[in-house]
Design goal:
The structure holds two protein chains of two kinds.
Chain A: H1 2-11, E1 16-22, E2 28-31, H2 35-59, E3 68-71, E4 76-81, E5 86-91
Antiparallel strand pairs in A: 1-2, 1-5, 3-4, 4-5
Chain B: H1 2-21, E1 46-49, H2 53-59, E2 73-77, H3 78-88, H4 98-103, E3 108-113, E4 123-126, H5 129-158, H6 178-185, H7 277-285, H8 287-309, H9 316-327, E5 335-341, E6 350-357, E7 364-371, H10 375-380, E8 391-396, E9 405-408, E10 413-418, E11 425-430, E12 435-439, H11 441-448, E13 479-480, E14 484-485, E15 498-502, E16 524-529, E17 533-538, E18 574-579, E19 591-596, E20 634-639, E21 643-648, E22 651-653, E23 660-662, E24 667-670, E25 676-681, E26 688-693, E27 696-701, E28 710-711, E29 719-724, E30 731-736, E31 740-745, E32 755-758, E33 764-773, E34 776-783, E35 788-793, H12 795-798, H13 804-843, H14 853-877, H15 900-914
Parallel strand pairs in B: 9-13
Antiparallel strand pairs in B: 1-4, 2-3, 3-4, 5-35, 6-7, 7-8, 8-9, 10-11, 11-12, 12-14, 15-16, 16-17, 17-18, 19-20, 20-21, 21-24, 22-23, 25-26, 26-27, 27-28, 29-30, 30-31, 31-32, 33-34, 34-35
Helix pairs in contact in B: 1-3, 14-15
Chain lengths: ~100, ~900
C-alpha cells in the first residue's frame, strides 16, 4: 500500500510520463508503461546504471552512484539506483 | 718367223711412240718389253705394232691390199721376222717385240691388221699360239656368223621362220686373264691341318658320372692368380682431384588440411525475462521494496521538482537573440518576389485553377489552367476549336520562360494532386467531372536533371526513346498524355472540385479487416464535386503488386503513354459513391472541399470562382463495397453554399428500407456566405481547420461543436484562397480578389491581418507555401491572369518563435474554453429566458411565442454584436486598442486579458436588452 502510494505520488508529478521499478536483474517489477517498452527501458538502463556505478567507483572507491539523470531532447530519464532495485522515471521537463 | 719378229719389233717401236702420247699407259722403258703387251687390258699376248709401208711391202701385208679389214690375219714366218730384224736392226718394226718373237715357240706369227686401231696401232702381233689359234678360228666363226646373220636377215625380211633351236655349242674357255685374279683372291689353306684323334674305351660311354667338388686352391697350379701389388717404382701422389659437387635442394612435400570456416547465418531469438504476476506481487509486497522506495523517493522527488521549477538547460543567450529579432526592426517587405512564371502560349486568356509543388523534386511546380469563361459561355461556345487545349505545365524555378513538361488534359483541370507515395503519378479532376491520371515517370529523370539555364540557351533534354514529340524544335517541352481517364458515366456530373490521395490504411477492399498496406503507397483517390457526391477511386496501377507492364492494349493508347493504367482508359470506375444529404431536410450538400481526419491534406490548391449552384438530383449509383470498420471515417465538407458539414462518410445500410443511410452524426455550420474555397487542416494541429469562404474565414477545432474558434470579420473584398503556413503554427496566408495577400498571425492580432501585401492586379486564385531548403521558404501565388508568382517568405514569417507551437495551442485552448464558457452562458441565459417566458406566457398567453432556435440564435447574435460594440468602446476608452478602421459590424474575438470584468457586463447587457 505504501508502495502504491509512493509510486502514485511520483507518477502524479507534473510532466511525468512513466514510472518503473526494476529489480536487480533488470526485470521490471512495477511499471506504468506497456510491457515491451518497459522491458526495453529496463534492459538498457540497467546496464547503463551498472556502468555508471562502476565508473564512479573506479574513480573513487569510496564513492557511489546516487542518481542518474539523462536529459534528451524530448524528455528526461531519471534513475535512482539502489542495492536491489532501480526506480526509473521519465519526465517531460518543458513547461 | 722373221717377219713376226720384225713385226714384233715394230710393234714395240710403235708402241713406244704410242704409249708416250697416250696417258693410259705407263712410260715405256726400253728394257721393259713385257709391258708392251696388252696385259694392261687383259690381253698379254697381243702386242700392237706399227707397220711402216716398207715393212708392209716386205711382208706382203700392205694395208688395204694384202690385208684388209676382213682379211686381217697375216701369218708371217718367224725366220723372216728375224731376218728383217737383222737387216734393219732397230729400224725394223719388230724391234720392240724382238724378245717375244725370239721366244715364240711356233713358226708362224700372226699379225693382225687392226684397221680400227683396237689396240692402238694398225697392226698387232699375237704372241701365243693359243691366241693365234683363237683369233684365226673365231674370225671364221664370226665370219660365218655374219654370213649367217646376213642370210637370216634376208630370210626374215621375206618370211618369219622359226629358227630351229640350236643348243649352245660348247666352246673352249678362252682365258682372258681372269683366272689370275681369281687365283689371287682365292683363299687357300697354307697350313696343313693337324688332325687329332681321341678315343675312349667303349664301355665307358654312357656310364654314370659322378661329380666331385674340389677346391681349386688345394690343387697346385689349378688356377693362376695375378695378384695386384703396389708397384713402388710407380707411385703418384694425387695432389689434385677433380670433384664435382651438386647442390640439390631438399624438396619436401607436405599437406595439411585446415578447417574452413565459412560464414553462416545465425539467428538468435530471445525474449526478455519477465516476472510472473505472482512474483511481481510478491516482490511488491516485500519489505525490501519498501525500504528501497523510502530511501529513493526523496531524491526522485527533488529531481522532479527541479524540472518542474525551471528548465536547467535553458539557453538564455539563444533566447535573447530571438527576442531581439522579433522586437527589432520589422522588414519592410515580408514576401519578396522571387520569380514568376507565365507562358504566353498556353496561358493566354486563361486562369490558373490549381498548382502543386512537386513533392520530391525541388523547384518544380505544376500548374493547371482553365478558361475564364463561365458555364453558360462555355456551353454557348460550341465550337471547341476555339478553346485552347488545356494543359498542365511544369515549371522549374531555374527556367522561368520555358515549361519543362506539358501534360495534356482532356478537359480543363480544376484540381490535381501528386500522389504522395509516387510523385510521378498525378491525378486531376476535370471540369466535366472526369478524373484523369498521368504518369510522368518517364520524364522524372528529365525533371530532376534540369539545370539552371542561362538566357537563350536550350533546355537540357534527356533523350527519351519512347517520347513522342510533336514535331517541333528541341526547346519545346515534351507532351505527356494522360494515361487513364475515368468513364464519363461513372464520374461526377459536375466539375471535380477537390481531389485527394488517400494513404494506404484507408483502403477499401472487399474484406472486412483493415488491410494495412505496409508499402505506404497511396492507392486510392477521393474526389468531390458539387453534384453532391464524393467518389472513392481505386487506382489499381498503384497497388504493390503493380502490374505496370500490362500488355492489354484494349483502347489502343498512343505509344508515348506509359502502360500504367492502360486498362483504365475510359472504364475507370469509382469504388464507392457517397451522396451527401442532410439528415433532416433531405436536401443535399454539394461539396466543394473535403477534408479527412485521418489524412493530412497538405497540398490542396484549387481555385474555383463562385459558380451558380444548382441542386442536382440524387445520383443513383452506389457500389456495394464494404467499408472498413476500424478507421476513422470522419469527414469535413465545405459546400458550395458555404456550409461546413462535419460527418462521416461511412455508408450504412438501413435495415428497414434497405437504403443506404449515411452521414450519421452530421453537423452543419453555416457561417460563410459564399462557396467555401479552402478547407484545410493545420499542419501542426490535426484538429484545427481553416475554412475560407466569401468574405470571412473561420478556424475550427474538431470536437468543438459550438462553432468556430475564430471567425473573422467580413473583409472588404472576398477571400479567394488561403493556406496555413508550413512552419509557423499561428500563421496563415489568405489571398483576396484584389490581388492582395493577407498574412495573419494569430499571436499578434486576431482581428486583422498582421501584414498584407499586394502581389498582382487580378484575383488571387491559389496559394501554396513550400519549403525547398531550411532557409528558403517560398509562397507560390497564382492569379487570374495566368501568372504564377513565387515569393520568398522572409525569415520572421518562416521561423517560428520559441514555443510558438505551445503558445498557439494555448490560444486555441483558450478560445475553446471561451467558446464553452459562452455556450454555457448562453444556456444559462436561455434557461433564464425560458423561465421568463414561462412567467410571461403565464401572464401574456399567446402574446409571445416560444422562440425557435433560429430566432434565439439571431437574437443572440444581435445581442452579441451589441456587446462587442460596447466592449470595443470601453476598451477604446481604456486606450488598450489602437483605433483602426473596422469595416464590419461583426468583430473578432480578441483574447484580451480583461475578460472577467467584461463578462459581468455581458450579463448586465442581456438583462438590459431583455427589458427595453
Amino acid at each position: 500500500a505504501e508502495v502504491e502510494e509512493t509510486l502514485k505520488r511520483i507518477q502524479s508529478h507534473k510532466g511525468v510520463i512513466a514510472t518503473m521499478v526494476i529489480n536487480a536483474e533488470g526485470i521490471p517489477v512495477r511499471t506504468t508503461l506497456d510491457n515491451s517498452t518497459t522491458v526495453q527501458y529496463a534492459g538498457l538502463l540497467h546496464q547503463l546504471t551498472t556502468k555508471a556505478r562502476s565508473a564512479v567507483r573506479d574513480l573513487d572507491p569510496q564513492n557511489d552512484l546516487t542518481f542518474l539523470r539523462i536529459r534528451s531532447k524530448k524528455h528526461e530519464i531519471m534513475v535512482a539506483p539502489d542495492k536491489e532495485y532501480l526506480l526509473i522515471v521519465v519526465q517531460n521537463p518543458c513547461e | 718367223m722373221s717377219s713376226k719378229k720384225t713385226s714384233a719389233k715394230k710393234q714395240k717401236g710403235g708402241k713406244k711412240a704410242k704409249e708416250s702420247s697416250k696417258g693410259k699407259r705407263t712410260e715405256l722403258d726400253k728394257n721393259d718389253e713385257a709391258d708392251l703387251s696388252m696385259a694392261s687390258i687383259g690381253h698379254p699376248e697381243i702386242f700392237p705394232l706399227v707397220f711402216t709401208t716398207k715393212t708392209q711391202e716386205i711382208f706382203n701385208c700392205r694395208a688395204d691390199e694384202d690385208v684388209t679389214e676382213e682379211n686381217c690375219f697375216k701369218l708371217i714366218k718367224k725366220e723372216d721376222i728375224i731376218q728383217d730384224m737383222k737387216t734393219r736392226a732397230t729400224v725394223s718394226d719388230f724391234h720392240p717385240v724382238k724378245k717375244i718373237i725370239l721366244e715364240y715357240p711356233g713358226e708362224e706369227l700372226l699379225v693382225v691388221f687392226d684397221a680400227k686401231f683396237q689396240y692402238g696401232q694398225n697392226f698387232y702381233l699375237v704372241a701365243s699360239e693359243e691366241a693365234k689359234e683363237d683369233l684365226l678360228k673365231p674370225p671364221e666363226t664370226v665370219e660365218e656368223k655374219r654370213d649367217d646373220d646376213e642370210k637370216e636377215e634376208e630370210s626374215e625380211e621375206e618370211t618369219l621362220e622359226v629358227q630351229p633351236y640350236k643348243p649352245p655349242v660348247h666352246k673352249p674357255w678362252v682365258s682372258l686373264g681372269s683366272e689370275k685374279e681369281v687365283e689371287e683372291e682365292s683363299v687357300k689353306e697354307t697350313i696343313t691341318k693337324i688332325k687329332y684323334r681321341i678315343s675312349r674305351v667303349r664301355r665307358k660311354f654312357g656310364a654314370p658320372i659322378t661329380f666331385t667338388d674340389k677346391n681349386a686352391s688345394h690343387v697346385k697350379d689349378s688356377y693362376l692368380e695375378c695378384t695386384s701389388y703396389q708397384d713402388k717404382s710407380f707411385s703418384i701422389k694425387m695432389l689434385e682431384k677433380d670433384v664435382g659437387i651438386q647442390m640439390v635442394p631438399k624438396l619436401r612435400e607436405a599437406i595439411t588440411q585446415t578447417t574452413w570456416t565459412y560464414p553462416r547465418n545465425a539467428a538468435t531469438q530471445y525474449f526478455p525475462i519477465e516476472l510472473s504476476n505472482e512474483e511481481k506481487e510478491e516482490s511488491l509486497s516485500s519489505g525490501k521494496l519498501k525500504e528501497f522506495l523510502t530511501s529513493v523517493h526523496l531524491r526522485m522527488e527533488i529531481a522532479l521538482q527541479q524540472n518542474e521549477i525551471m528548465n536547467a538547460f535553458f539557453d538564455d543567450w539563444k533566447a535573447l537573440t530571438e527576442e531581439e529579432s522579433s522586437s527589432g526592426g520589422k522588414p519592410h517587405v515580408y514576401l519578396k518576389a522571387y520569380q514568376s512564371f507565365t507562358d504566353l502560349h498556353y496561358f493566354k486568356d486563361r486562369t490558373i485553377s490549381c498548382f502543386c509543388w512537386h513533392p520530391t523534386i525541388s523547384g518544380i511546380i505544376a500548374v493547371s489552367t482553365r478558361g475564364r469563361l463561365s458555364y453558360e459561355e462555355r456551353v454557348n461556345l460550341s465550337d471547341k476549336s476555339l478553346l485552347q487545349q488545356p494543359v498542365i505545365l511544369f515549371w522549374c524555378s531555374f527556367d522561368p520562360t520555358h515549361p519543362q513538361l506539358v501534360l495534356e488534359c482532356p478537359e480543363d483541370i480544376c484540381c490535381f494532386q501528386f500522389s504522395p507515395s509516387d510523385p510521378s503519378i498525378i491525378a486531376g479532376g476535370c471540369i466535366n467531372g472526369q478524373v484523369v491520371l498521368w504518369d510522368i515517370s518517364q520524364h522524372e529523370e528529365k525533371l530532376q536533371n534540369v539545370k539552371p539555364v542561362a538566357d537563350g540557351t536550350e533546355i537540357t533534354a534527356v533523350n527519351m526513346p519512347s517520347l513522342m514529340q510533336v514535331p517541333q524544335s528541341s526547346t519545346e517541352p515534351p507532351l505527356v498524355r494522360c494515361c487513364a481517364v475515368s468513364s464519363i458515366q461513372d464520374s461526377h456530373e459536375k466539375p471535380v472540385t477537390d481531389i485527394h490521395w488517400l494513404p494506404d490504411y484507408s483502403e477499401d477492399n472487399q474484406m472486412d479487416a483493415t488491410s494495412e498496406n505496409r508499402a505506404e503507397t497511396s492507392v486510392q483517390l477521393v474526389t468531390c464535386s458539387p453534384d453532391c457526391s464524393i467518389l472513392f477511386w481505386d487506382n489499381p496501377a498503384m497497388k504493390p503488386s503493380s502490374e505496370k507492364l500490362k500488355e492489354e492494349d484494349v483502347f489502343g493508347m498512343p505509344l508515348d503513354v506509359p502502360d500504367t493504367s492502360k486498362h483504365l482508359d475510359l472504364c475507370w470506375k469509382p469504388l464507392v459513391q457517397i451522396n451527401l444529404c442532410e439528415n433532416d431536410t433531405n436536401a443535399e450538400y454539394s461539396p466543394v472541399r473535403i477534408s479527412f481526419r485521418e489524412l493530412h491534406c497538405q497540398y490542396k490548391t484549387s481555385d474555383v470562382p463562385a459558380k451558380q449552384s444548382l441542386y442536382r438530383e440524387r445520383s443513383t449509383s452506389s457500389k456495394n463495397v464494404k467499408v472498413l470498420e476500424s478507421i476513422s471515417t470522419d469527414l469535413l465538407v465545405g459546400t458550395e453554399d458555404g456550409d461546413i458539414v462535419y460527418s462521416d462518410w461511412k455508408v450504412e445500410i438501413d435495415s428497414d428500407s434497405e437504403k443506404q443511410v449515411s452521414q450519421k452524426h452530421t453537423q452543419k455550420y453555416t457561417i460563410h456566405t459564399e462557396t467555401i474555397n479552402t478547407l484545410q487542416r493545420s499542419p501542426f494541429f490535426k484538429d484545427i481547420i481553416l475554412s475560407i469562404g466569401g468574405q470571412t474565414f473561420a478556424i475550427w477545432k474538431e470536437g468543438v461543436t459550438n462553432g468556430p474558434i475564430l471567425h473573422s470579420s467580413c473583409s472588404a473584398g472576398r477571400y479567394t484562397a488561403g493556406k496555413w503556413s508550413l512552419t509557423r503554427p499561428g500563421v496563415f496566408f489568405i489571398g483576396r480578389d484584389d490581388g492582395n495577400i493577407d498574412i495573419w498571425d494569430l499571436l499578434k492580432k486576431t482581428y486583422e491581418p498582421s501584414q498584407f501585401q499586394n502581389i498582382s492586379e487580378s484575383m488571387i486564385t491559389f496559394i501554396s507555401p513550400w519549403i525547398t531548403s531550411p532557409n528558403q521558404h517560398f509562397l507560390a501565388v497564382s492569379d487570374d491572369l495566368g501568372i504564377l508568382h513565387v515569393l520568398e517568405i522572409c525569415q520572421t514569417l518562416s521561423q517560428p518563435s520559441e514555443n510558438e507551437h505551445d503558445t498557439v495551442l494555448d490560444y486555441f485552448e483558450r478560445e475553446v474554453k471561451y467558446l464553452n464558457y459562452c455556450e454555457h452562458e448562453f444556456q444559462e441565459y436561455q434557461e433564464l429566458q425560458a423561465k421568463r417566458e414561462s412567467k410571461s406566457s403565464w401572464r401574456h398567453r399567446g402574446r409571445k411565442q416560444y422562440k425557435t432556435k433560429e430566432e434565439m440564435e439571431e437574437q443572440e447574435n444581435a445581442d452579441y454584436t451589441m456587446f462587442l460594440d460596447l466592449e470595443k468602446q470601453i476598451l477604446a476608452d481604456l486606450v488598450l486598442v489602437n483605433r483602426q478602421e473596422i469595416l464590419s459590424s461583426l468583430d473578432t474575438w480578441s483574447p484580451l486579458p480583461p475578460l472577467e470584468p467584461v463578462s459581468f457586463l455581458f450579463q448586465d447587457l442581456f438583462i438590459s436588452a431583455e427589458n427595453p
